[in-house]
Amino acid sequence: MDGLPGEYRHEPALAFAGGASGLDFINRLMDQARNHLTEDGLLVVEAGSARESLEAAWPRTPFSWLMSENGEAVVFALEAAELDPSPRMPA
After folding, report:
1. What is the CATH number of the domain that holds 74?
2. What average pLDDT is seen over the chain?
3. I need a surface site. Which of 47, 58, 81, 82 has the fewest CB within 10 A?
């Protein structure tokens, strides 16, 4: 973390522990989210630049990408009902 720009140092170290695919933490979050959301719950995740690989890994998931003020789609939202229990492609 010492070599990262100052604004990155405010992020938890876990945010940079994505594994080889860069999606380890997000995959774990997506796998477990249904167990923690209410029926009408909403999952909102900052995915950074992982959009393409995330959509490839979860092809049946209807991600709703939210635009940042600089026009980047780095955050997605999913309703609890959209979280299919097993939509991920094998690693």
Report:
1. 3.40.50.150
2. 83
3. 81
